[in-house]
Amino acid sequence: METKTGADVAAVAELSDRLRGAIATVIEGKTDAIDMSLAVLLAGGHLLIEDVPGVGKTMLARTLARAVDCTARRIQFTADLLPTDITGVSVFNPDTREFQFKPGGVFANLVIGDEINRASPKTQSALLEAMAESRVSVDGVTHELPTPFMVVATQNPIEMQGTYPLPEAQRDRFMISMSMGYPARGAELEMLDRHSASDPLSELRPVTDAAGIVLAKEAVREVFLHPKLKEYVVTLLERTRTSELLRLGASPRAGLHLTRAARARAAMQGRGYVVPEDVSSLAVAALAHRVLLSPLTMQASHRTPSDVLAELVAEVPTPRRT
Predict the structure, then answer these.
(1) Which of 48, 99, 219, 249 could form a disulfide with 241 if both were Cys (CB 3.0 to 4.6 A apart)?
(2) Model-level pTM?
């Protein structure tokens, strides 16, 4: 007889299949990117997509928002964007002679932060409280954000003109950082056919709603994580903090995010328990954007944080299944 937890996990797997199928009608040939974004959504985290312009970063975010029947807002980050444009502002009402709060762009279930690193660090920091605590404080008053709440931010490589590097505290709020990459030849040919004749995004219909995502997130939290896998995660974190290749290691929040994402990946595959591959397959995406290379590493090689993290993850033995 199937347990309640088993039934809940099966429902998560079925939901993720429907979401994956819907998003794939718009985003061709990017199964890994779609699965990564769904894992973040079901784990209750925030997603950072970094890549060159034109590869579908914003389209993926918009498609994810369209596939879920919930409130969605898009904030275009520019150099003149103000923090109050994000959080909101108190405006004096002459009729009532009282200040009234006007919510900013962050008040939605799914917030698309487009080109987040084109705004100043001060404006970027307006998201810190929202992403960490699902609330914002304006003029001494705390305002709760809708449930569920997710930020999907896109950014261009920092070498490009008009960009600011994200503060370390901001990057640490993102559960996963990933890139889209250029499409495969077949997917790009299909894209030219489908997107030139019509707009697949306009034809997409939601396959779930905010309440469905909340139920799925509750089921994900119940996925079993073996104590040995917890030790494995902590070992990975410790290796980033002691490696001579890095001058800033992963934070404790990184470990929490990694385990939550691993639980979501397991549930998406219909399992009520996490296996080592759930952790190891997500480790680089969950940790690389939080670490900083040491000056010697930057000078002596062309390795990126992802390259270094991949090496460190490969060096740590994965727990054996029992």
Answers:
(1) 249
(2) 0.91
Q: Give just the sign of the alpha carbon dihedral 120, 122, 123, 128.
A: positive
Is the Cα torsion angle 23, 26, 32, 37 positive or negative in sign? negative
Q: Mind listing the pLDDT tens digit of every residue in the chain (322 residues)? A: 344 466 799 999 999 999 999 999 999 889 999 999 999 999 999 999 998 888 888 899 999 999 999 999 999 999 899 999 999 998 888 888 888 889 999 999 999 999 998 888 888 888 999 999 999 998 888 999 999 999 999 988 766 666 778 888 899 999 999 998 888 888 888 888 777 767 888 889 999 999 999 999 999 999 999 999 999 999 999 999 999 999 999 999 999 999 999 999 999 999 999 999 999 999 999 999 999 999 888 777 788 899 999 999 999 999 886 6
Amino acid (1-letter code) at residue 34: I
Residues 6+ apart with CB under 8 A from 124: 77, 116, 117, 164, 166, 167, 170
Element (H, E) at 190: helix 185-197
The distance from CA 153 to its chain's CA centroid, rounded to whole angstroms, is: 8
> How many angstroms separate the Cα of 280 from the Cα of each of 42, 240, 296, 301, 316?
18, 14, 27, 25, 10
CA dihedral 58, 60, 66, 70 (to 10 degrees): -80
Q: DSSP for 260-288?
A: HHHHHHHHHTT-SB--HHHHHHHHHHHHG
d(Cα 99, Cα 93) in Å, to the nearest integer?
Answer: 6
Question: Edge-to-edge, what's the strand order for the sheet holding 150-155?
Answer: 72-76, 110-114, 150-155, 47-50, 176-178
Residues in the chain, how many?
322
Gap between the Cα atoms of 291 and 309, Å rounded = 9
d(CA 233, CA 278): 11
Structure token pair of residue 129: 């409280």
**R_g over Cα of the chain:** 20
